[in-house]
Amino acid sequence: MRTQTVTADQAGRRVDRWLMKLLPTISMSMAQKLLRTKCVKRNGKHLKPDDRLEAGDELQLYIPDALFEEKRTDSFLSGFRVRLSVLYEDENFLLADKRPGLAVHGDGQEKVDTLLNHVRAYLYQKGEYDSLASGAFSPALCNRIDRFTGGIVIAAKNEAALKAMDAMIRARQVEKRYLLVAKGRMRPESGMLKHFIRKPEGAKRVQVLDAPEHGAKEALTRYRTLAVRGELSLMECELLTGRTHQIRAQFAHVGHPLLGDGQYGDQNFNRRYQRQGQALYAYAMAFHPPAGDFAYLAQVRVTAPKVSFAEEYFPDFRFPPQ
User: Fold this and answer.
1) Cα–Cα distances in angstroms (integers) from residue 167 to residues 68, 142, 154, 288, 306, in the given order
2) Quick one: pLDDT at residue 9?
3) How many CB atoms are located within 10 Å of the residue 212 CB?
4) 34-52, pLDDT tens digit by residue?
5) Comparing C-alpha atoms, which of 56, 60, 23 is closest to residue 41?
6) HSE-up of residue 233 (Cα within 13 Å, Cβ side)
7) Which own/partner contact pairs does 103-112 have at CB distance under 8 Å and 24+ positions apart?
8) Among residues 254, 241, 238, which one has the least CA distance to residue 188?
9) Residues 6+ apart with CB under 8 A from 46
């Protein structure tokens, strides 16, 4: 056992963050595990990760000596040039505004410049994640959006957060809203798109069906028209399900493909506007969590600061939509 006395300049810190400074080899999740398993006590009493330290506190540390050794450096993450727009962050989650063209995960085209690497490098350089620590949780993305779709992506900082967010997404307790520019005027101007989507094995495109068939999953998208300018409609959508290419495929299926969509869209239409990359943005997110450790997310609503294609094609439109 070792003992540590809290100094005046350390007073007020959360005990889990203080522990990470003391033990350079551990991650945030490891620090919280040490506290949950009572490896750190204050005056012989159990501490919670979010307890605040006071000057003069005597802390008893029942921790292996190896954890006090000098921290090794991850040369990739330490030297990674982070370009990340963080819209919201707490000890469990980070919500990032992904720029169009950036892949969320590595693929055959790009393995280094990905949103996940930017998130991990950002947290590593802040001292909240240690990729070299044994058993450390690696920050993970809870949702994904297509490479050329911009918008909000959720990253979990610990395993409990990842499991909770996955459950919330499956239970439709995460509200996701998109802006898009579609060809023509939707009739009616607001409503619900209800189809069934199937992705054949190995195919790059999904199939949109009007009736249920084997292997197809229900796809629900609520929409409303915000503005019309010539043959372009600016629309807001709310995803009620999360199928592959859901919005792009459904709008194309009903005859209103997204501007710039090279996979499901109208190529002559795209060329007229010299648009590459679909005009689609996951611009807003809110949460409706169950009671429990993550109930505080009910107070969180995040909106992207701007959507460039809305400004470009609808200069009179006031963002965000009301």
Assistant:
1) 36, 10, 13, 12, 29
2) 75
3) 12
4) 889 999 999 888 888 899 9
5) 60
6) 21
7) 103/147, 104/141, 104/144, 104/145, 104/147, 104/153, 105/141, 105/144
8) 254
9) 38
